[in-house]
């Protein structure tokens, strides 16, 4: 079987062929966005092979079908890594926004536990942060699931068990220790998500 010397060119050519029904300007924009995504991913993650980058983008037929479906709305569709198709939302929501929404509200609720609405507001902001994380094109599905599990689900479950069960030790010291452990978990997960984000 013949192996191509330039898999990126072959991949983009396949997308161009499959998207031949698109107007030329939209097809060019789609190809430019894909080429830029590939280039940025390779620069940010040098250990990832070009084959893995192309596999994350998905099948050229799927990309073309999505672009054709989106052609009427004026948007250029680019698949998110992991094969899920979505609009290219570069610049609309900065990646720091969901990370802050997942972390800072817990810190506020831990520092000001006597404020009646602190817990409720913390939960609302963390849910919004989880939604923004899950709909972002900057992380893979596995990274999103891990991020939501470690920054939203696990801390919320731990807080619920601590609050509503009799298993929690009495006194402020254990509560402060639990809050500190949760903050370390949130900060570590947020730092990891920031490090592995895509451009």
Keywords:
199 residues; mainly alpha; 2 domains; two-stranded antiparallel sheet; 8 helices; 2 strands; 68% helix; elongated
SSE succession = HHHHEEHHHH
Seen as an oligomer or otherwise, the chain set is: single chain
Shape: elongated
Number of helices: 8
Structural class category: mainly alpha
Major beta sheet, specifics? 2 strands, antiparallel
Q: Residue ranges: pLDDT <50 for 5 or more in a row?
A: 73-91
The N- and C-terminal alpha carbons lie at a distance of 35 Å
Largest beta sheet: strand ordering: 1-2
Number of domains: 2
What is the helical fraction, as a range of percent?
55-70%
How much of the residues is beta strand, in percent?
A: under 5%
What does the radius of gyration come to? 21 Å
Query: How confident is the prediction overall: mean pLDDT?
Result: 77
- Report the count of strand segments: 2
């Amino acid at each position: 079987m013949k192996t191509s010397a330039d898999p990126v060119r072959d991949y983009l050519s396949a997308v161009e062929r499959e998207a031949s029904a698109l107007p030329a300007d939209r097809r060019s924009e789609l190809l430019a966005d894909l080429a830029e995504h590939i280039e940025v991913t390779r620069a940010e993650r040098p250990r990832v092979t070009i084959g893995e980058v192309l596999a994350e983008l998905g099948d050229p037929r799927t990309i073309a079908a999505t672009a054709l479906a989106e052609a009427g709305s004026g948007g250029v569709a680019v698949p998110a890594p992991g094969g899920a198709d979505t609009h290219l939302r570069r610049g609309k929501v900065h990646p720091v926004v969901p990370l802050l929404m997942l972390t800072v509200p817990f810190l506020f609720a831990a520092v000001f536990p006597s404020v009646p609405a602190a817990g409720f507001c913390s939960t609302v902001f963390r849910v919004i942060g989880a939604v923004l994380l899950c709909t972002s094109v900057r992380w893979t599905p596995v990274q999103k699931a891990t991020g939501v599990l470690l920054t939203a689900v696990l801390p919320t479950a731990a807080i619920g068990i601590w609050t509503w069960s009799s298993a929690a030790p009495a006194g402020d010291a254990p509560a402060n220790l639990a809050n500190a452990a949760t903050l370390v978990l949130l900060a570590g997960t947020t730092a990891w998500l920031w490090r592995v984000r895509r451009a």
